[in-house]
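Q: Hi! First time doing this. I have a protein sequence and I read that you can turn it into a structure. Is that right? Here it is:
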Amino acid sequence: MTLPFPSREWVGAYGAAINASESYRPEIGIAEPVGIWLDLDRGTCRAAKLVSQTEAEQAPFVITGDYSQWKRVIRKELGPIAGIMQRKLALKGSLPIVVRFVKSAEELVQAATQVPTKFLDE
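A: Yes, that's right. Below is the predicted 3D structure, encoded as structure tokens:
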């Protein structure tokens, strides 16, 4: 059966086709949004843990982004400050404070590149 375009029926069928598409939104194995909590103090990481989105949102500084953007950050294809400025990453917290510590942000990314990483979508 063919549906007239544009029509309510066509749009409804289109939405169903998007939801049925395996390749539109590939599953990478993360069921719920998560955060990485870093307790940083004067050049020391006192704690690093995987937390729920709710717990992550309690931090004074939160940088959020899609999996693909974080993958680019870890691969050093996107700097965290540039990502915030380009709105590829979002910041909750004081941007002037984050900008003041650009070198620290770069070093945190450098440390992430030292971790042997297998991305879930590869």
